[in-house]
Give the backbone structure.
Amino acid sequence: MRFLADMGVAMRIVEWLRAQSYDVKHLREEGLQRMSDRDIFRKASVVLFRLHNTHTPHVIERLKVALAQSKTILETGSIVVIEESRVRTRRLPLRE
């Protein structure tokens, strides 16, 4: 599974994902101009964090839960919203 991490995501979270064998591209490292390979966006999933506690250990714990619950749907393209008390998922593309 491939992740594209926004610059707002702590490098410790990116490093944790890589340690879990996820392919992570961090915009801070890659730079937008080097992201011209459109394959990175195929079957892309989006993970949104809606957390009050944004300390890295807490974010990683919530991410562990979300990945365990949503691994299959993340592989096919989806939006995953990680909140303090729940994880919500929607398949992409969204339809009205």
